[in-house]
Design goal:
The complex is a heterodimer of chains A (about 375) and B (about 300).
Chain A lengths: L2 H17 L1 H21 L7 E7 L4 H12 L3 E6 L3 H9 L5 E5 L3 H6 L7 E4 L4 H27 L21 H32 L1 H5 L6 H30 L8 H25 L3 H18 L11 H7 L3 H15 L3 H25 L6
Parallel strand pairs in A: 1-2, 1-3
Antiparallel strand pairs in A: 3-4
Chain B lengths: L4 E10 L2 E11 L4 E5 L6 H8 L7 E6 L2 E2 L4 H4 L3 E4 L11 H11 L4 H14 L15 H13 L5 E5 L7 H16 L3 E5 L3 H4 L4 E6 L2 E6 L1 H6 L4 E7 L2 H9 L4 E7 L2 E6 L4 H11 L4 E7 L3 H13 L1
Parallel strand pairs in B: 3-8, 3-9, 6-7, 7-8
Antiparallel strand pairs in B: 1-2, 1-4, 4-5, 9-10, 11-13, 11-14, 12-13
The chains are: A mainly alpha (about 375), B alpha/beta (about 300).
Chain lengths: ~375, ~300
Amino acid sequence: MNYKRIGSIIRKEFLQIKRDKRTMTIIFLMPIMQLLLFGYVASTNVDHIPSVVMNNDIGTESRVLLESFANSQYFDLDYHVQSIEEIEKYIDNGDARAGIVIPPEYSEYIKSGRTAQIQLIVDGSDPTTAQAVLSSAGGVVQSMSVKITQKMLGASMPQPLDLRTRVWYNPNMDSTRFNIPGLIGVILQTVTLMLTSFSIVRERERGTMEQLIVTPITKMELMLGKVIPYVLIGFVDIVLALSLSVFWFRVPIAGSINLLLLYSVIFLVGALGVGLNISVVAKSQLEAMQLSMFMIMPNMLLSGYMFPRNAMPKFVQALGSVLPLTHFINVLRGIILKGNGLAELYKEFFILIGFGVFFIVLASKKFKKKIE
Amino acid sequence: MIDSIQIHSLTKKFGDITAVNNLNVEVKNNTIFGLVGPDGAGKTTTMRMLCSLLTPDKGTAKIGGYDILTESNEIKNHIGYMPQKFSLYGDLTVMENLVFYSKVYQVPKKESKEKIKFLLKFSNLTDHSYKLADQLSGGMKQKLALSCNLIHSPKYLLLDEPTIGVDPVARREFWKILFDLRDQGATIFVSTPYMDEAERCDEVGLMDKGRIIRKDNPDNIINGFGYHLLSVYSDDNHLARTLVQEEEYVMDAYLMGEGLHVVTESLESIKKLKEKLKISGIKVISINEAAPALEDVFVNIIKSEKR
């Protein structure tokens, strides 16, 4: 292996990247745009759910109950109606996601110590919202019940059970904080895949490969020369993405930033290696584009970025673990949210190095210095 | 002296089509060998096999004693290859392309600087060295491509139709460079669709349907024509051609430039031709015996192969 020859390819790639507007856009604009877009859109914090209320009770107790619904911040009691048909209308056309029905005898029952019933209607078409409605309504009603019981029995009555919860790492359970680290991984994977998936096949399509492969350059030299420039570019992208997440989205990095950057570089080699393999196999740039598009969805779904991996069937989990991104997302979340160090993340260290070596070697094995 | 390029029963098939069929050629050191033939004759396939870009189905070749099958890595240090299509980086400048290839071929820094300077001058590109390769004219592009292939001073040059799409003046210049290179010791294997270029080669191989059907120096090929060539000028060459072709004593008739070329076995045909055309109402301006050019010989050989 000759380092000068690798250097000559690297230099050439940089010259070409510099002059290619499309590539420059992918490198600098895409990560910023995606991070901003996804950072705002992919929030699963559900609150201020528009709700419709049908209160048939004229007593004060029902008003107290509705107040505590409103105070929970989860419900916005936007509409007040008189009939079930109207509730149906509001939920049907999507103006309201939840309906609260209080029967006429509510206050009377509470006062006389009987069990009063309240009806909650939930729009279940979006399970995330429905789940939030159910659990927050449950919470509101639960604490209301306790209050009423205590008032009836005297305030000194102790609770038989008392659960004290402490949420670590992300105390407010802010979904943005959870999403951003994974998002950085996804963006890095997407950008690098798009960039390298073109790198070899473009030369074949333009004909420049025919001239290059009659030189004494070796396959490994060519592969490394193609990957290294993009590792450097990917490094710039990760610094860009991290700054945006720290300074814009206010997601602090709990662990060591140097360690995070080290992991990023190792991950990049593997991620770029995947793109390189696409580029070696593809017959045209169009095909390379399609193949890399084809790869993006499984990466998003299987890596645990969108859905928790331990909720997936074992087989699907196994599929996910052959993606470098899955392990890198563990690292990102570990270091950014939990402040993990090498001690906790040593497995990922070796796995990511393994991926890097594997994909680069595979690409150089598959690459033929031929034009067939 | 050992022949510098030796091709032994080289064969390549693409599906049912045999692109190169049991090819045997020997090219002498320090000569220009011209490979000519119609489109689809197998010229490019032959070139690509010689550069190890394609794997032959059968046979092999040696370049400077190195086998293309087993020593392709070593060969790559000694050859320069110009593909038919422009294959340098259009988004790099002339200088950047030259520097890139000098590094890929590991030409020592000091040597490469001088070599680049020399090549730029040699190919008249000094004033254009800052331009992107895509901005060059066809002729300049080809000279740049050749220069990039000369950066490591290869002994063997394989050029696949290097002057296609290049204007006549630039073509002439390009060939001047090739003669200089040969005089400096290079061996050049060049394919060309142009007969005037073929005539300038030290040796020519006529290729058709994957085989070399004639190989000699251009003079010998012309002298070995074996027929008489008549150059006919009339007021309607097209009609004359159709009429003449049916005559028994006419081997072949085809339009060439302003006139009509008629191939015949004896000079007595001149009389017969004159009569025939007169009867048909064609005004004959002149009929003379002409010296055949390489093109006439090749057209005849390829047609007689078909007969």
